[in-house]
Each structure stands twice: as structure tokens, then as C-alpha cells.
Amino acid sequence: MPVVIPIRKHLSPAEFAVESGLSLATVRRYLKSGRLPKVQFGGFRCRVLIPREALQLAAGSLGTGAAGEAASGNSPSTTAPKPSNRRRKPRWLTQQTTNLEEDYAAKTYK
Predict the structure, then answer these.
(1) pLDDT digits over 19-77, tens only?
(2) Among 1, 33, 52, 89, which residue has the fewest nearby CB atoms (within 10 Å)?
(3) CA-CA distance, 46 to 35, in Å (whole number)?
(4) CATH number assigned to the domain with residue range 7-64, chosen from the 4 options 3.30.43.10, 1.10.1660.10, 3.30.70.560, 3.10.620.30
């Protein structure tokens, strides 16, 4: 008599990572951001399980990011601009040099 192993409806994050081909860190990151559905039967601090139906989601839409587009050859024709440095410039860079020279001259020769 053959042993029949029932297919479970939910997978642990580690099992999901193995079956989907994603790393465990990526699966956890997707769970935290809400890109993957999760179920916690016992409440907030209980074990996190992922529905088996999310494997189709992982195979389809989760893999289409910048790396997925570059690998498939469907990358956009223009490259995205680099993010600007949002830190404030120091005060000595924002003032013009003539003002600094005048201030220095006024302080030292008075």
C-alpha cells in the first residue's frame, strides 16, 4: 500500500523559499512589506505561514523587478537618474567667497 502524503495548504517561510527559488531573507522581506500574503492562526506572535497559492504570485509578479527586466531584455530605453544627495551643504559652501573674504577682512583689520 503506497503512502499518500497530503499536500498542505500553507508553507513555512523556509519551505516557501526552497520551492520558489527565493532566498529566505527575500521571503521575509516580502512578508514584512506585504508583497506576500501571510497567515498567523494563533495571533500576532505565532508562527507565520504562507498560502501555497502564493507560489504562483512569486513565480509571476514578484520576479519582475529591475533585475527581471534586465534579464529578459525588456529594460527601459532610458536609464533612471541617480538619486541626488539630500544632505544640506555646509554654510561655507553656500556663501559666496567674496562675502567670506569681506567678513574675514572686517574682523581682522578692526
Answers:
(1) 999 999 999 999 999 999 999 988 888 999 999 998 887 777 665 544 444 444 444 44
(2) 1
(3) 20
(4) 1.10.1660.10
